[in-house]
Design brief:
Helices cover about 50% and strands about 0% of the residues. By secondary structure, the chain is an all-alpha fold.
């Protein structure tokens, strides 16, 4: 097995978010791509605030997404054609929301290093729109509840949980 904490296991490349739970560290390990701008002349306090602008779980998800893109054969910077091909290759195998998040990660990696984001191109936007139309799952409309049914649901609620549930309903 690879010692790289961001390496994608060969047997899990078809799954969605299969390696998010692998431990990674921001300093010293994983991908060398930065996720926030690092102005060279900025004071340490500003750099610390920029680092704190992204939650650790978000940072881990972005690194995971970037590792997947790089393992597929992508690079930073990437051309819009490469990103659109990446989307097409994974369409139907990954959830539409996962692909959309990966685009955010790819965009973040580009903009934080001063590159134009390929995800803003009409080609990539069109590819994602086509994926949404082809593979997306429409949300189902739930029938509304009637007032009489709601009153009956909250009638027997008591205690602290009952007060909470009554307020929620």
């Amino acid at each position: 097995m690879s010692t790289d904490p961001l390496a994608i296991p060969k047997d899990s490349q078809g799954g969605d978010n299969t390696f998010l739970s692998q431990p990674t560290t921001e300093a010293g390990g994983g991908t060398n791509l930065q996720l926030t701008a690092r102005p060279p002349n900025a004071p340490r306090a500003v750099q610390d605030l920029l680092h704190a602008s992204i939650a650790e779980n978000t940072r881990r998800a972005y690194r995971s997404d970037l590792a997947h893109f790089l393992a597929w054969g992508g690079s930073i910077p990437a051309a819009p054609e490469v990103v659109a091909t990446y989307l097409a290759d994974w369409a139907g195998r990954l959830a539409v929301a996962s692909l959309a998040r990966r685009l955010v990660s790819i965009s973040r990696a580009h903009t934080s290093q001063g590159y134009a984001s390929p995800t803003k191109s009409d080609l990539v936007k069109g590819a994602l729109k086509g994926i949404r139309r082809t593979y997306g799952v429409a949300q189902s409309q739930v029938t509304p509840i009637f007032r009489e049914d709601l009153v009956a649901m909250v009638a027997d609620l008591s205690g602290t949980k009952g007060i909470r549930d009554r307020a929620l309903l």
